[in-house]
Amino acid sequence: MIDEEIVELNEDVTGSSLYSEDLAPVPKNKRTWTRWSLAALWVGMAVCIPTYLLASYMMKEGMGWLESLIIIGAANLIITIPMVLNGHAGVKYGVPFPVIGRSSFGTKGVHLASVTRGIVACGWFGIQTWIGGMAIYEIIYAFSDGATPTDLNWLMFTCFGAFWFMNMFFIWKGTDSIKWLEEYSAPILILMGVVLIGWGAYNSGGFGVVLEQSTQLQKPTLEVSELADDFLIKINAITDKEGQPKATHYAHQKTSKAESIEISYHAFPTDGVVTIPKYIAEREDSELQLIYKTNEVHLESSWTPVDFNAEPPAPTNKLWQYIKWLTVMLGFWATMSLSISDITRFAPTQKAQRQGQFIGLPGTMMLYSFVAIFVTCASILVFSDVLIAADAPWDPTALLGKFESPWVVIIAQVFMIIATLSTNIAANVIAPSNAFSNLFPKKISFKMGGTITGILGIVICPWWLMNDIAGILILVSGFLGPVLGIMLCDYFLIRKKRIQLAELYKEDGAYSYSNGFNMKAMFSLLFGIGAALIWYLVPSLAYLSDLAWFTGFFVAFLVYYLLMSKQIDRNLLNEH
Questions:
Q1: 288 in helix, strand or coil?
Q2: What is the DSSP string of 233-249?
């Protein structure tokens, strides 16, 4: 058999309850997604606020900008490999993830994997839609004199609803409109990244000058050490290009349950070290905070609570830190690695899907992570109100808020809307739409599945889910890594890339197993998830959380192979 061969459906299975036009194999004459279409798709998906924020989480843990960038690049090269492998079946058989998954999990068992992936996507859909709505919200307030209100209000929800309907438009128009959106948005988004780098270099005095500032973002704001009668607090204030602190004064405030003591300002010490007597620090009903100001316009930084009882940080194990963040990066696209056949089914050849994914994914993730690093470092020098690392505008919406020109804000927010829309549609709509359609193929179409996705994206209340992206990604990777391990093992090792296409659509066919469930796959999935997330039940194994994706993937892969290798019907290997 030629590896590049496309297998088409030659049997009439339209009467089956498992068949629908939306889940049917895509015929050769409708495979219109070229390698450039797929590359553009990845550009559209990768350029988003979560990508922009990834490097910040790593640098806040003390990693350098180059280390962060290398890990991001390595992780995305690694995840592209299973992405391409899992996309193989999509090209060869033209079927989406919930259908190809029937071969390994069973016609009913696949719902567990596909709906889990779909629900995760609904959560991300809601978060991205809220982000897009806030871009519209910022545009509305661009010409206002006062600060933009940040508390939840009716206008925020109105903007959220407006952006929600933008997403729904492309869902209701179908996959051709999605392809159009990604192809036209990709060059705009690449241009936006180049412009941001140019802005940072021009306004900061050069490329090298900007990157030199990265070490300032790696330090904690405060470092506390204890003496006999005092606490010494080293304040790592942001410095200018000459190495001088931008802050000229500091202040401390002590509050208690009964009173609030007036703030008093002091000249900022040349060495950045402040002495606090223990009799103030150790009172149970008080807390201490620090603030800075300049002698220009009294710019205040963020308040920084001081924990006098905190244990000194343990020495950093660099290797383990690299592994942890490698897992986080893998978790970032864990969902797409499962459902990539939803996209590759529209590619005409395996070569097109391979090239499109390797061209589009690793490079774009590295580019936009670098944009985030570079622009944030530049902001240290450009904006006078960045006085401590916590003030640095890692979030692009915070960056835009620092510009005085309303037209700059409007143009930038339009770019933000395009980036968020292209990411949301491709990464968070297609997969759950197919997953929900697969539940009842005759009753739920792709468009209806997309509508369900949109509704669930509202129900999850995304305005409350904007924190701890890294923690979410580790948890998600623990669930989805095992699913990918089972699917790749089944397709490549057990079935040797040979699937009986028509049997995927039969209620009592070769993939119905026992009442629609392949119990060996169910057991392998349970075992893989358990191994990946055992640290939830056994706190002493918490360090294993950093390996969740790897652990779940390889354990499920191995268990499934051992259970299936000798019991698979060998007659299936010689058929399509």
A1: strand
A2: EEE---B-TTS-BS--E
What are the φ and ψ backbone dihedral angles of 313, each rounded to 5 degrees? -60, 140
d(CA 444, CA 440): 6
Are 352 and 90 within 8 A, CB to CB?
Answer: no
The secondary structure element, H or E, covering residue 139 is: helix 110-140
Report how far residue 542's alpha carbon sits from residue 540's, in angstroms, rounded to the nearest whole number.
6
How far is 357 from 91, CA to CA, in rounded Å? 13
pTM score:
0.81
Phi, psi of 517 (to 5 degrees): -120, 130
Whole-number Å distance between alpha carbons of 29 and 543: 50
Instruction: Tell me whether strands 222-226 and 230-235 are parallel, antiparallel or unpaired.
Output: antiparallel
pLDDT tens track for 494-540? 999 999 999 999 999 999 998 899 999 999 999 998 887 776 777 77
Tell me whether the CATH fold assigned to 33-203+319-386+393-469 matches the one assigned to 216-305: no
Question: What sign for the dihedral angle of Cα 200, 203, 208, 214?
Answer: negative
Pull the structure tokens for residue 533: 């997330």
How far apart CA 9 and CA 99 sit, in angstroms, is 13
Domain boundaries, the chain: 33-203+319-386+393-469, 216-305
Q: Say if strands 230-235 and 249-255 run parallel, antiparallel, or are unpaired.
A: unpaired
Q: What is the mean pLDDT of the chain?
A: 83
CATH code: domain 33-203+319-386+393-469 is 1.10.4160.10
Provide the token pair at 45. 């998906």
Return the number of other C-beta atoms located less than 10 Å from residue 369's C-beta. 26
Homologous superfamily (CATH) for 216-305: Immunoglobulins (2.60.40.10)
Q: Answer yes or no: are the C-beta atoms of 175 and 22 closer than 8 Å.
A: no
**Residue type at 360 in one-letter notation:** G
Lowest mean pLDDT of 88-97, 285-294, 339-348, 544-553, name the range.
285-294
Report how far residue 314's alpha carbon sits from residue 95's, in angstroms, rounded to the nearest whole number: 50
| CA gap 148, 129 in Å, rounded | 19
b/e for 482-505, b at 16 or more Cβ within 10 A? bbbbbbbbbbeebbeebbbbbbbb
Per DSSP, the three-state class of 299 is coil
Alpha carbon 23 to its chain's center: 27
Q: Which residues contact 223 (CB under 8 A, 6 or more apart)?
A: 233, 234, 236
* CA–CA dist 463, 469 (Å, integer): 14
Position 258 pLDDT exceeds 60: no
Cα 168 to Cα 162: distance, rounded to the nearest angstrom: 10
Residues near 197 by beta carbon (within 8 Å), at least 6 away in sequence = 370, 371, 374, 375
Is residue 177 predicted with pLDDT exceeding 90? Answer: no
Say how far apart CA 295 and CA 238 lie, in whole Å: 15
Q: Of 472, 464, 428, which Cα lies nearest the Cα of 339?
A: 428
pLDDT of 351:
93
